[in-house]
Each structure stands twice: as structure tokens, then as C-alpha cells.
TrEMBL record:
Compartment(s): Membrane
Pfam families: O-FucT (PF10250)
Gene Ontology MF annotations: glycosyltransferase activity
Family listed: Belongs to the glycosyltransferase GT106 family.
The protein's name: O-fucosyltransferase family protein
């Protein structure tokens, strides 16, 4: 006890030692280490959950993805994501792994079919693998083209979808999944009776070919509508693709109405079909060599003129020019070429460009640096053309391939937007008659317009061919069950749907 100078005693407790402050570097080091440790634990926890029970941690992963998503500069207004659907609870009968084959749109239809098969058989679907060995040699994965998180979440009330197989089913762990291509144009009975029992034995089934493996007709209504839901809602392109696609559409729309011409006069199509109309002899030989180089192109020796007369060849750019004029499209019509490199390049486009000076391609509308990320990725480039084609005022395919059919169906889904489906067999006949002087221009134009009066994408029943499903109208070109209330589209037929040309 001490005494102050004024005589008042003062209690003296032990004075604490001075606290040495931590340096700023030490504080930051501790924070960084703690953050790394915390995130490592979370990632490991989620990974284990995905492998052993994919939906146990779905809410956690959604929260994490919302927090860590890098903000993108998207010029279009982006709506907040819809509330997460309640996951469908079911006992999975096994894991379905699929490898899609073909180009973007062939793979897109296959994905829709495979989701539907997984739903029918109560399977867990692994995110589909995309073709990397086709003519286009595109290295893109599913997540490079489609928004994989949206794909999984938007279908979680129907099908359980995981990004990859659990490790215990990998080859490294000695598991050998059964690989096979399902039979084409099959209905639900085939999958229930012949495919489902295979899962009891193998647990994992790998479909190594997936194109056209589900019938067009005779499928239950709920499965048909699921195919549409996958196609029109779940298969959403990545933000990078959508941003650039919307920009292309906006640039075109600011200049007025536009036509999307799917000019399928590309090297692979000409080689595959054997169509060489308008080609030099050297070019015809080049196409033939290419056809022989790919073993899956079964027809090697092809009579080009015979195929053309049967309507099995895409229109040439010169023929397309005459048909557009005959249909009444004026010279100032804005035309977007939805295609890859035209065979013969600008030489073959000269007649079409002379008739329609306002011809543009994505390479003309966008800066090189904007397209650079998509170079050598044909499926991603095709996705841009797909978006523009769906949004166009008029869509005209010169060949009825997979893109033409899927765009046609998408435009029907959006309210039967005008899609001119060219009757190539009739057109070849009329073109030859006009060019040899048998038909005057006026007679030619009247005949062309008359032949296409009912080929404008109006509501119509999907054609059924008994016992020949491959010859029926393609489901994705006319998904009738998803377009109309009830069993018929007849009530939708009206003068407004006749799609007058102009």
C-alpha cells in the first residue's frame, strides 16, 4: 500500500505487462490461412456429398455458387434466378452415362431424349459427354456450351443429374460399365423391358451413341412434354454465348426486319451428300476424297444430278438467290447467313450478294476479339447462329438437317414464327424449267409461291408412318404435344398464321 502526498492511501495492484501489438502482416497471414482452411473443408465436404448423395448438399452448393459467381458484364437485363425446385425423391436404379454424337443440334436432341429415358427408368443421369471425334473436331465440353448448373437445377424435380460418376464406378477402381448404343426410334417399352434389367446387373450403363434413339410418335404425353421442357427451358446456353448472341440479334434488329438464311452449302454437307452442282472438277474431286476419308459415310460413289433431282441436295447460293427473289423478298432485305464457311467462299456468294447487298455474317457484325474465344469451337459458333435464327423475322433453311429442324420446332414453340420450308424437289424442277427457258420469270415466281403457300411453319399435325418411324415427321421439328391444348392444333389455324411473304 502506498500513500499519496495528501495522506490518502492508494492500493497498488500488479501492473500488467505491456501488450505487444501484432503487425499488419501477421494479421493478414492469419486471416488468409483461416480462409483457405475453411474453404478447403467446405469443398471437401461438398465433394463427398456429391459422390455419395448428390442432393444432400444441393442447397449448400447453390449458396456457394451464388456467392462465388464472378459478375459478368451482360448487356441484356438478367433476371434473378427462379426459386430452386423441390428435388424429386426416388430410389435410383443406376447411373446412365451418355456420349452424344454429331453436331450441336444432333447432340441437343439426343440430350433431350436421354433425360427422358433417365426419367422413365428412374436413373441418375451423368452430365452428357459431347462428341469430339466428328468432322468438326470440336473440343467443347457440355459446360462450354450449356449452363450446366441451370441444366441440373431446372430438372431436379424430374431427374437426378450429377456432374460425374462416383469414384467407385471408375475404371481405376476396377469397374467396367456396359457400353452399347440403344436401338434407334425406340419407344418406352424397349427401355423398360430390355434396358432397365441391364442396370440390375451392371449398375452403370454407357450409351455410346445417342442420336434418334427415341420414337417420334406413340410416346406418353408426360414424356413428350419432358422432352420439350429439356429442349426449350433446361438447355440454356452459357452467359458468354448468350451475351454475344443477344448482341448479334440487337445489331440486326436495329436495322429493321431480317431473314436468317441457313445456307447449308458447306464442305461437310457437300461431301456427305455427294452434291457438286456448280463446283469445278477439282472441287468435286476434293469432296469425293473427303467422303472416302470418313468410314461412317457409307455412300461413296454418288450420282450428284440424280440426288439433286430427288431433292436431296442443299440449294446452291445461286439457286437460293433465285428462290428468294421468286418468293418476293426485295433487294433491300437484310439477310443473315447462318452457316459456317461457304464452300467456294465469296466466289459462290457473288450472285446472292448481287441480288441482296445487305448480306451479313457474324464475322462482319462482331469484332475479331469478340469471336476469338469461340474460334475452333464449331458448336459454340453454331450456338450463335442458332440464337439468331430463332430470333429472326423469317427463317429459311436450304437443307432440312438437324439445325433446320430444331430451329423450326423452336420457332413453332414461340408462336409459329414464319419459317419457310423449301420443297427442294419441286424447286429443282422449277429452277431447271426457268433456266432452260420453259418458264418465264413471272410464271416461275407464281409457281414457287404457290408451292410454299402451306410451308410457312403453320400449325400442323405431325405425320405418322406406320411401322416406319424414321420416315415420320421429326418430333423436334414439330413437337405438337407441347404446342397445343388438347389433342389437336386445328383451333390455331387462322388467316394470321398463313405467314404472308414480304
Amino acid at each position: 500500500m502506498e500513500v499519496r502526498s495528501d495522506g490518502i492511501p492508494v492500493r497498488c495492484d500488479k501492473i500488467p505487462a505491456p501488450v505487444i501489438p501484432r503487425t499488419r502482416l501477421q494479421v493478414w497471414f492469419i486471416r488468409v490461412c483461416s480462409s483457405i482452411l475453411l474453404w478447403t473443408c467446405l469443398v471437401q465436404l461438398v465433394a463427398v456429398g456429391e459422390l455419395w448423395h448428390p442432393h444432400l448438399f444441393s442447397n449448400i452448393t447453390n449458396r456457394i455458387s451464388q456467392i462465388t459467381l464472378v459478375p459478368l458484364h451482360v448487356e441484356e437485363a438478367i433476371q434473378s434466378p427462379p426459386p430452386l425446385l423441390t428435388a424429386r425423391k426416388y430410389k435410383s436404379n443406376g447411373f446412365l452415362r451418355v456420349s452424344c454424337n454429331g453436331g450441336l443440334n444432333q447432340m441437343r436432341a439426343a440430350i433431350c431424349d436421354m433425360v427422358t429415358v433417365a426419367r422413365l427408368l428412374n436413373l441418375t443421369l451423368v452430365v452428357p459427354e459431347l462428341d469430339k471425334k466428328s468432322f468438326w473436331a470440336d473440343p467443347s465440353n457440355f459446360e462450354d456450351i450449356f449452363d450446366v448448373r441451370h441444366f441440373i437445377d431446372s430438372l431436379r424435380d424430374e431427374v437426378r443429374i450429377i456432374r460425374r460418376l462416383p469414384k467407385r464406378f471408375n475404371r481405376k477402381h476396377g469397374h467396367k460399365p456396359l457400353q452399347m448404343p440403344p436401338i434407334s426410334w425406340s419407344n418406352e417399352n424397349y427401355y423398360v423391358q430390355q434396358i432397365l434389367p441391364l442396370f440390375k446387373k451392371h449398375r452403370v450403363l454407357h450409351f455410346n451413341k445417342t442420336d434418334a434413339r427415341l420414337s417420334n410418335n406413340g410416346i406418353p404425353l408426360d414424356l413428350q412434354r419432358l422432352r420439350c421442357r429439356v429442349n426449350f427451358q433446361a438447355l440454356k446456353f452459357t452467359p458468354q454465348i448468350e451475351t454475344l448472341g443477344y448482341k448479334l440479334v440487337r445489331i440486326l434488329q436495329e436495322k429493321g426486319p431480317f431473314v436468317a438464311l441457313h445456307l447449308r452449302y458447306e464442305m461437310d454437307m457437300l461431301a456427305f451428300s455427294g452434291c457438286t452442282r456448280g463446283c469445278f472438277e477439282k472441287e468435286a474431286e476434293e469432296l469425293k476424297r473427303m467422303r472416302y476419308a470418313y468410314i461412317w459415310w457409307r455412300d461413296k460413289e454418288i450420282d450428284s444430278e440424280l440426288r439433286r433431282s430427288q431433292g436431296l441436295c442443299p440449294l446452291t447460293p445461286e439457286e437460293a438467290s433465285l428462290v428468294l427473289q421468286a418468293l418476293g423478298f426485295e433487294k433491300n432485305t437484310q439477310i443473315y447467313i447462318a452457316a459456317g464457311e461457304i464452300y467456294g467462299s465469296e466466289r459462290r456468294l457473288s450472285a446472292l450478294r448481287a441480288a441482296y447487298p445487305l448480306i451479313v455474317k457474324k464475322e462482319m457484325l462482331l469484332a475479331p476479339e469478340e469471336l476469338q474465344q469461340f474460334q475452333n469451337h464449331s458448336s459454340q459458333m453454331a450456338a450463335l447462329d442458332f440464337m439468331v435464327s430463332v430470333a429472326s423475322n423469317t427463317f429459311i433453311p436450304t437443307y432440312d438437317g438437324n439445325m433446320a429442324k430444331l430451329v423450326e420446332g423452336h420457332r413453332r414453340y414461340l408462336g409459329f414464327k414464319r419459317t419457310i420450308l423449301l420443297d427442294r424437289r419441286k424447286l429443282v424442277e422449277l429452277l431447271d424449267m426457268h433456266q432452260n427457258g420453259t418458264l418465264s420469270w413471272d410464271e416461275f415466281a407464281v409457281a414457287v409461291q404457290s408451292a410454299h403457300e402451306k410451308r410457312m411453319g403453320q400449325p400442323s399435325r405431325r405425320r405418322v408412318v406406320a411401322d416406319k418411324p424414321k420416315e415420320e415427321d421429326y418430333f423436334y421439328a414439330n413437337p405438337q404435344e407441347c404446342l397445343c391444348e388438347g389433342t389437336s392444333c386445328d383451333d390455331l389455324l387462322s388467316p394470321g398464321n398463313s405467314s404472308a411473304i414480304g
